[in-house]
Amino acid sequence: MDAIKIIALWGLVAIGAAIAAGVIAAARNRDHSWWAAWCFVVPPMLIVLLLLPRNADVRPRRPTLDEEDREMV
Fold first, then answer.
1. Where are the domains of the chain?
2. Burial class of residue 53 (count of CB atoms within 10 Å of its CB; 0-12, 13-18, 19+)
3. Which of 52, 57, 67, 73 could make an SS bond with 63 (beta carbons 3.0 to 4.6 A apart)?
4. Whole-angstrom Cα distance, residue 19 to residue 25?
């Protein structure tokens, strides 16, 4: 297997892991964008997500960019 095929395969695995992580994280009441991004960069993190229990609490609301800007001033 040459380098081009390995890189292409890694890209497909990364995209698949990111999509799966987004769906699984949403089902487990976790931050889906954070998990999708990190599972794209490091696909084995999907295993960590699968081992985590479902988050029973209400997911905290992220502050908007405007709210973050107001806090910095």
1. 3-72
2. exposed
3. 67
4. 10
From 45, 13, 44, select the one nearest 35 (Cα to Cα): 45
Sign of CA dihedral 27, 31, 36, 38: negative
C-alpha distances in angstroms, 29 versus 8, 24, 51, 65? 31, 9, 14, 22
- The whole-model pTM stands at 0.77
